[in-house]
Structures are given as C-alpha cells and as structure tokens.
C-alpha cells in the first residue's frame, strides 16, 4: 500500500518522499504551521530530507500509511499535506492536515481529510481516528468536527508542553472487515 496514490475530485494524495523536501521545507516554515503545529527546526532542504527519512518514511514502511502530499489534479501544484500518524501519547491514529497559505479556504483540507478518514476506515481498517489541536486553532477545530470527530478532553503529549484538544471518532464495525468474525 505504501506506493499507492489516492484521488479525490480535485486532488491526488501521494505519500511524501525525499523528492518532496523543498515543498515540506516551505510548508513547515509557514507562520500558521509554526503557530499551530510547532517549530520543527527544519531550515534547509537537507534537514527536510532527513525529517522525511526519520519521521515519515519509517511509519509508511511499518504501517502502510503516513503523510501524503495533496497535489491539485488541474495543474500538479502541491497545496498541502494530509495524513494519518501514529503519535506517541495518543491511542490510535491521529489525522493531521496543513496547507500553504495561498491554498487555504478552498476546501482542499476538508477534501483531503475526508479521503483520509475513508481510507482509515475502509482501506487501513482502523477502528478509530483521533485529532489534536491547540485551543487557538479554531479553523482546525471546525474542520475536525466537520469530519465527525468529537471533543473528548484536554491532553498533553510527550515532548510537547501545549495543552491540546483531543477529538475522537470511533468507527462502527459494520463496515470494518478486520473487526468482523465468522461464527
């Protein structure tokens, strides 16, 4: 599954790889990323490549999913990322998304995240998806709720001092093949 691209009406979702280092460098150094997600201290293309190699590719290899670059079908422009992450301190998998500023408020995050939720349930056979965000990030909260996740509580995760809002959506097992048993 690690080599599969997925499509939505307007986007191609492609697993991030080393060739995406320049794009990642630009994205993770945008003011909103730093404010809402945190400074990853990645300031060169070489550091971006290392970040992809150490943070993203191992999870993709191990679990079959990770961070996906959202690419517009109409012109092949990379607009942002969306993915499913195994994150220390969280039960289950966390959905995350980020856009370059010029592509915000055009529905790309919702479109990509909706596809990720579908993949989580029907392709990767996950039983639940979580999301975390800071209290100040109202845009992410609205999108997370639009995806069907519900606020649970305020948490902290390892190596992060921020109070995070935790949202969860548990999938009903009627469509989840991995949960069905033969009697």
Characterization of this structure:
The protein has 183 residues and is of the alpha+beta class. It has one domain (6-177): Aminopeptidase (3-Layer(aba) Sandwich), CATH 3.40.630. The protein contains five helices and eight strands. The chain has helices spanning 21-28, 31-36, 45-63, 108-122, 138-146; strands spanning 6-7, 11-15, 67-72, 78-86, 93-99, 128-134, 150-155, 164-170. It has an eight-stranded mixed sheet. The longest helix has 19 residues, at 45-63. It is globular and about 35 Å long. The protein starts with 5 loop residues before the first strand and ends in a 13-residue tail after the last strand. The model is unreliable at 174-183 (pLDDT under 50).
